[in-house]
Design brief:
single chain, 325 residues, alpha/beta, Peroxisomal Thiolase, Chain A, domain 1, 2 domains, 5-stranded mixed beta sheet, 4-stranded mixed beta sheet, 10 helices, globular, binds oxa(dethia)-CoA
């Protein structure tokens, strides 16, 4: 039975100019390049300066995605921006990006699901497109986690970085089969019981502070491996596809060991996994679209190929999506 599909038309990225190495971090906290590489796979990350806010990076990523799609802001009906580090408590970063694009029609709003934010935003945009109410959407992941890091806490400050990336989706008629181009399935989950494992100790509605990121890394790691396997299984089961059908596995880039464990469970070899964690660290909601932009940019992801994305983050939130590129 024919149905509307959300097809990826383009993607683009924007990274802060400054690159910070592990060696630089070892001058700030008691750590070493060796520890960071071994435990996380991270070698460097980009850190935003004061002019490179989340909306500035998000706008640059949106422009790059539009250019790669051969489209202009007038072609877009909806902007969904995934971020946990908005420029301001309000207005939404998405409306700031909308204005920076000189776009004064349609609707723009933020989605907040921390590291799962891009999967959530993709899911929300997909629902708009397949309902027939929206023709095209910009889905952006944009973060400046460096602003909420406690630079004295070696357990967290070595792990995160800043950046933004975006995809353009358009609604297309499909045949309703797995051979269709576009988003074939999305699956999102959350469980608020685990709030204390990964959170920010401030907020407009509590202490009026921006706060700092706090994490029980080992606990998050354990849950990530279980929850990511569950969501990936749910998505594959819903489509009847198998791990061996996946051309590219593009996971959230938090830790190379988590990525490797999930890929192993899926039966996807390392050669079909896209890694950017070594260069970007954990950029939260930006990490998946940044990895997509890299693998599309260097020619690995080709139209018609099957791409699986997944993420897990604070909340806890987690989810996955299967996309025929
Ligand atoms: O994006 C979604 C959310 N985030 C994640 O998915 C991250 C999940 N967690 C992780 O990636 C890992 O748990 C970490 C990379 C955070 C840590 O790796 P680990 O193998 O779980 O290490 P650990 O937390 O068990 O710590 C091992 C040791 C500790 O010392 P003791 O207690 O064994 O003496 C830490 O104090 O390493 C110490 N340590 C460090 N040493 C050097 C913690 N941070 C550092 C550091 N440099 N930066």
């Amino acid at each position: 039975m024919s149905r509307i599909r959300s097809v990826v038309r383009g993607c683009g990225q924007a990274l802060p100019r400054r690159v910070m190495s592990n060696a630089e971090l070892s001058a700030i906290v008691e750590t070493s390049d060796e520890w960071i590489r071994q435990r996380s796979g991270i070698e460097r990350r980009h850190i935003a300066d004061e002019t490179e806010t989340t909306s500035v990076l998000g706008t640059a990523a949106a422009r790059a995605a539009l250019a790669s799609a051969g489209m202009v802001p007038a072609d877009i009906d909806l902007i969904v921006c995934a971020t946990s580090t908005p420029d301001y408590t309000f207005p939404a970063t998405a409306t700031q990006i909308q204005n920076a694009l000189d776009m004064h029609h349609g609707a723009a709003f933020d989605v907040q699901a921390v590291c799962s934010g891009f999967v959530y935003a993709l899911t929300v945009a997909d629902k708009f497109l397949i309902s027939g109410s929206t023709r095209s959407a910009l889905v952006i992941g944009a973060e400046t986690f460096s602003r909420i890091l406690d630079w004295k806490d070696r357990g967290t400050c070595v792990l995160f970085g800043d950046g933004a990336a975006a995809v353009v989706l358009t609604a297309e008629q499909g045949a309703g089969t797995n051979a269709d181009r576009g988003i074939l399935h999305t699956h999102i989950r959350s469980d608020g019981r685990y709030r204390d494992k990964l959170y920010v100790d401030g907020g407009a509605g509590s202490n009026g502070q921006v706060g700092h990121l706090r994490m029980e890394g080992r606990e998050v790691f354990k849950h990530a491996v279980i929850n990511l396997a569950d969501t990936v299984e749910a998505t594959l089961a819903a489509t009847g596809l198998k791990g061996s059908d996946i051309d590219w596995f593009v996971p959230h880039q938090a830790n190379k060991r988590i990525i490797d464990a999930t890929a192993h469970k899926l039966g996807v070899p390392e050669s079909r996994v896209v890694y950017t964690v070594q260069d970007h660290g954990n950029t939260s909601a930006a990490s998946i679209p940044l990895a997509l932009a890299r693998a599309v940019g260097d020619g690995r992801i080709q139209p018609g190929q099957l791409v699986l994305v997944e993420a897990m983050g604070g909340g806890f939130t987690w989810g996955s999506a299967l996309i025929r590129w």
